[in-house]
Amino acid sequence: SIVDRVSRGLLPVPDRDYLEPLGGVRKVRPSEGLAVPTESGEVVWRAYRAEGEILDFSETVGRSDQANVFAACVVRTVDAVEVLVDLQTVLGARLWLNGFPVATPAPVAPAAAGLQRHVARLRNGDNQFMLQVPLASLDTLAAAENSTPQALRETVMATRPMLKSANGFEAAIRFRPVARAGQLVYVPRFMET
Fold this sequence. Notes:
This protein is mostly beta strands. Helix content is 15%, strand content 38%.
């Protein structure tokens, strides 16, 4: 289970391509209704519309206290552009851009995981981001960490400000264009004076 792996200091999910039956992460172009055969039966891609940068998978997971969720989105650009991808989860996540890995979670305690920032180059046209997020309720994680849900929630909220409820079943992702000054990459922000 995800929580068992975390408590043993391992990555929350095994380094395995769960979409291999469909050609793998590099080839899959998810659409609503696309069926993925798994060892425990078939799972089906569902359409989901995020409000802002938060992806709350509570309803998707249902009564389960842990789950491994995939999500995908297409970012369309007129010109090629570099962006800062700000990804915040409780346990970290795997992220691919156009089939190539951008981020992999580190095997660390939940209090230290889940804040991932990466610079990615988007090509002009459609760019597919694929996200694999290991999820677990904060109650279950707290029990595995010999902590309390409140203490874990406070830690998560302090280090991942985009997560609003910190229930263990949400992720947040934000894309911001970046600029460069030599080797320095930064997000330009202008202030009124």
